[in-house]
Amino acid sequence: MITGSLVALITPMLANGAVDTKKLDDLIEFHIKEGTHGIVAVGTTGESSTLTPEEHSNVIHQVVQTVAGRVPVIAGTGANATHEAIDLTRSAKEAGADACLLVTPYYNKPTQEGLYQHFKAIAEAVDIPQILYNVPGRTACDMQNETVVRLSKVKNIVGIKDATGNLERGEALIKSVPTEFAVYSGDDPTAIELILQGGKGNISVTANIAPKIVAQAAELALAGDFEQARRLDQSIAALHANLFLESNPIPVKWACNQMGLCDAGIRLPLTPLAEPHHSALKQAMIQVGILSV
Questions:
Q1: How far, rounded to the nearest angstrom, does the alpha carbon of residue 208 sit from its chain's CA centroid?
Q2: What is the rounded CA–CA span in Å between residue 149 and residue 123?
Q3: Which listed residue (161, 184, 200, 253) is catalytic?
Q4: By CB count within 10 A, which of 125, 170, 226, 234 is most buried?
Q5: Is 203 annotated as a binding residue?
């Protein structure tokens, strides 16, 4: 089972929007050095929705090759068309990814039965561990706990990224699924609390800029050290909040650029972080010590 702090990695881009393969390698080395437990490539934070299918596959291949087995690699392969998700998942398996992360179909608003059949079809088509991803705030599609429990019985569906931020619902889900089925948080502000309730880790946006602290907090929570985990998490609460001043990954890409981790590139329809937000996010970064005054 993959556990701990799993960074939802940005896809670094040049100012013209081209994928920056050199910086992608540098980011991977940065995360491994800082103690990140696993890398999620081309998820929401990795701008999966604006990459071409070829770019999507190329980034996953590069991440797998550069990581070279040092930490697990989870490939974002979800789509709103089942056949497309199957194609992306097959490509990720061929690349050597350890698992795939599949977001609920967006825009077309399937029923709960449609969600069940969608994920079941992908799991049956591609023999690789698969993690469901529920983020209704972005997809207009909310997979209910009952549907997740049904899917947890499918052989190679091994977990879910729960980005609802609803701790009561998350706790109920953890109690309802088999012990070998992993529930990960996809909501940084509540991630430590979900781990303390039995979650297995955090697929984190904040880890892009504070990987060491996020990893240490996850380790403490997994070890049951409630007090220290909460204390450490509280020290980066301002980061959690300010990284969502605008739609993810707009703020985190700006923050990574300020740290010299990547160029300022981002693709339309996403735009650079609005200037009025710069001060608040920069102050939060200074407070944590990841940026100088």
A1: 10
A2: 15
A3: 161
A4: 170
A5: yes
Structural domains in the chain, sorted by start: 4-225 (3.20.20.70)
Q: Which of the residues 133, 184, 200, 253 is marked catalytic?
A: 133
CA 100/CA 209 separation, integer angstroms: 23
What are the pLDDT digits (tens) for 227-254? 999 999 999 999 999 999 999 999 999 9
Residues 119-173 have pLDDT tens digits of: 999 999 999 999 999 999 999 999 999 999 999 999 999 999 999 999 999 999 9
In angstroms, the CA 219 to CA 213 distance is 10
* 133 catalytic residue (yes or no): yes
Annotated ligand binding at 44? The verdict is no
Q: Decide if 161 is catalytic.
A: yes
Question: Are 292 and 260 in contact, with CB atoms under 8 Å apart?
Answer: no
Give the dihedral sign, CA 286/289/292/293: positive
Instruction: Specify the pLDDT at position 293.
Output: 79
**CB distance 113 to 105 below 8 Å:** no
**Cut 0.70: pTM above it:** yes
For 67-121, the pLDDT digits (tens) are 999 999 999 999 999 999 999 999 999 999 999 999 999 999 999 999 999 999 9
Torsion over CA: 48, 49, 50, 54 (sign): positive
